[in-house]
Amino acid sequence: MGEFWKRLIFGALFVIVVLGSIILGRYAASLMLMLVVMMASSEVANLFPHEPNKSLKDVVGCCSVMLYVFFFVLSRNFDSIESGIYIAPIFFFVPLLIALFSKKHDYVSLVGASWLSMIFVAMPCGIMTLFYNEELMGTDKGWVLLIFAYILIWVNDIFAYLTGSAIGRHKLCPRISPKKTIEGSIGGAVFTMLFAYFINRFLLNVFFFDNLISNVEVLFLALGVVVFGTLGDLTESMMKRHAGVKDSGSLIPGHGGILDRFDATFMAMPFVFIYLLLI
After folding, report:
1. What is the mean pLDDT of the segment spanning 131-139?
2. What is the pLDDT of residue 92?
3. What is the mean pLDDT of residues 240-263?
4. What is the chain written as a DSSP string?
5. What are the residue ranges spanned by the domains of the chain?
């Protein structure tokens, strides 16, 4: 199988699994996100220097899953969300305590990998479960907004790549990601904003919502997705470059690991969630 067809087939399967889980409802989506946290946290641990055993993965994975489950519990109860904001930081002391009393872990690697995974992976995945909270989102169709955000992220990725391949000349951040170009980023932003505008005007506000997001607001939403998605992509590229690896893993043939597929999502989704609460 050629590389192009491999990327196409497994990319399509990835989209089907993600969107299918979201459409099936809170529990299917939460299970999918739990698996993402477990696999992505393992990849984060692999990017840090450690002894050739799985103990670092176990600690990083457990800390990340605990924080994710905490967010899932919050998503079930609107009244507990405010108090949960004050409780969540406690989870970041867990890897500190483990590192202090453990004799087989490198302190910096354990705490660094755990905190990075909790902030970059577990929290964004936990925030995605909050889209199913009707009181918080102001609608029982938060899953539609979640799908919309995912599609915007993918549209930006696709058109940034196509535009950059066609007319890209000036590097965006050559030290971290030599293939990304300024022209590609601008092209991705333009197409994403146009796509968001037409989908919001002719689909979301016609079949799902009664002008929940105005046509002007959706343009800023799309622009934010582009900016934060690109930051997420660059953040993961910096992590891989520091570790001296090309891909974070090999779980998805032709695409790399879970971090490689969700890097933009991890940074863009918190922005989408906060933006929707503010407008």
Report:
1. 90
2. 93
3. 84
4. --HHHHHHHHHHHHHHHHHHHHHH-HHHHHHHHHHHHHHHHHHHHHTS---SSSHHHHHHHHHHHHHHHHHHHHHH-GGGHHHHHHHGGGGGHHHHHHHHH-SSS-HHHHHHHHHHHIIIIIHHHHHHHGGG-HHHHTSS-HHHHHHHHHHHHHHHHHHHHHHHHHH--SEEETTTEEEEEHHHHHHHHHHHHHHHHHHIIIIIIIII-SSSS-HHHHHHHHHHHHHHHHHHHHHHHHHHHHHT-SSS--SBTTTB-HHHHHHHHHHHHHHHHHHHHH-
5. 3-278
Asked which of 70-84, 124-138, 220-234, 238-252 is least confident by mean pLDDT, the reply is 70-84
Q: Could you give the CA distance from residue 59 to residue 141 in angstroms, rounded to a whole number?
A: 36
The sign of the torsion formed by the CA atoms of 84, 90, 95, 97 equals: negative
User: Which has more confidence, 8 or 227?
Assistant: 227
Read off the pTM: 0.92
- Contact criterion met (CB below 8 Å) for 62 and 38: no
How far is the C-alpha of 43 from the C-alpha of 45, rounded, in Å? 5
Give the C-alpha separation, 48 to 45, whole Å: 6
- pLDDT category of residue 50 using cuts at 50, 70 and 90: low
